[in-house]
Amino acid sequence: MYLVYVLYSDVGGCHYVGYTSNLPERMISHNEKGKGWTARWRPWRIIHTKEFSDKLEAMRYECWLKTGAGRDFIKQIVH
Prior knowledge:
3 helices
């Protein structure tokens, strides 16, 4: 099982899109570990998830969320 997720940071007013097979572990990574892009906008909260049985389908949906139409969809969730 793969989950595509959208995170939102109230601190930065920004979102992050990703996919994983272990969402609880990934959330710990975003909120407590690491030094990547997400580290500066902690804490993150989940605003959207969608489950897929196929990794390729999850990756396609993640890519779609990063398009103009996908960003518009995310804006509707946030507001």
